[in-house]
Design goal:
This protein has 13 helices and eleven strands. The chain is α/β, with parallel strands linked by helices. A hairpin with a 2-residue loop joins strand 5 (171-172) and strand 6.
């Protein structure tokens, strides 16, 4: 089986032999790993002035970085990140990644139309709009969902991607930003509509949110994504408990503690990786991953350390 086939099998809850699939939401250490700037870290201010030939070269270079990362670190899926503006250029990047990688990897892009936690400077205005005119706010969210589903319909015709990662964050380490009442009013119905719309179009869906999700976990599962990411241990999310509650209904991705990869000891990092594998693997439906991403400033050797544990201990019987 190819990495893509193994990733999809895990999303569909099919039994696997051999190594547990691996995926990271984003790998930002491309300068350290390859001596090349990550597509998210580039200045696109002059993009509109570039000739079509220059744009093609940039897109080819970005695609190479995504594919090189997947090959070197044995990812089963690629989530495309870039600061490109415009649907046409986004579609060109998708096509180029697929051209370079064939059907080796599951290709995914961002696709969340729901409301996440607003930035600190916007919180008061955001909450005021929802409180003062809830129907207008819901109409705006509904319109955004419709726009995202129209975009995905075009992507379905293009045929180059496999699915979407929904990356609006709902939770702090202490719990959700929204009260249960507001979550059910402004998030739950739109999340269900979006996820089910993608699924009807034939796409796979991963729902990401950091923080303590335990009080809204049933709502996330109700929406029907194929997988839940990131199972944040810094937010008090214990993969053993999550596996017990929902592990037979949805694929789990993550739980290796990013904070420890940054500030912990080697032994603590190893223990976190082992814990995620120990409790995520039984019965399948688990994809090995950190609890967020491989972000700027993390030491590459720390990521490689947990990959060594995954290679040695993250294997189902043949």
């Amino acid at each position: 089986m190819t990495p893509r086939q193994r990733f999809i099998a895990s999303l569909e809850g099919k039994p696997l032999t051999g190594r547990v699939p691996h995926f990271e939401l984003v790998f930002y250490l491309t300068m350290e790993a390859f001596g090349r700037v990550h597509p998210d870290h580039r200045n696109y201010s002059q993009w509109v002035q570039m000739t079509d030939s220059e744009k093609r070269l940039h897109i080819r270079d970005m695609a190479e970085i995504f594919v090189m990362t997947a090959k070197r670190f044995e990812h089963s899926a690629i989530l495309l990140h870039s600061a490109l503006n415009g649907q046409e250029d986004e579609f060109r990047l998708i096509d180029e990644v697929r051209r370079q990688s064939g059907d080796e990897y599951c290709i995914m892009i961002h696709g969340d139309a729901t409301c996440g936690i607003p930035s600190g400077g916007d919180m008061s205005e955001f909450c005021g709009r929802l409180a003062d005119n809830p129907q207008k706010a819901k109409d705006e969210i509904r319109k955004r969902v419709d726009e995202y589903l129209a975009r995905s319909e075009k992507l379905k015709k293009q045929g180059a991607i496999d699915g979407f990662c929904l990356c609006s964050d709902y939770c702090f380490n202490t719990g959700p930003f929204f009260s249960p009442e507001w979550f059910d009013e402004f998030i739950t119905p739109h999340l269900i509509e979006l996820v089910q719309g993608y699924r009807r179009q034939g796409f796979y869906v991963i729902k990401h949110t950091d923080g303590n999700i335990m009080s809204i976990m049933d709502r996330l599962v109700q929406a029907g994504p194929h997988a839940l990411h990131s199972l944040d241990p810094q937010g008090g999310v214990d993969i053993a408990e999550v596996k017990k509650q929902i592990g037979d209904r949805i694929t789990l991705i993550g739980n290796v503690n990013c904070g420890l990869l940054d500030t912990g000891t080697d032994a603590e990092c190893i223990e976190s990786a082992r814990y995620a594998l120990k409790y995520g693997m039984p019965g399948g439906r688990y994809i090995f991953s950190t609890s967020n991403c491989i972000y700027t400033g993390m030491r590459l050797e720390r990521y490689e350390l947990i990959l060594d544990i995954w290679r040695k201990e993250g294997n189902y019987p043949e």
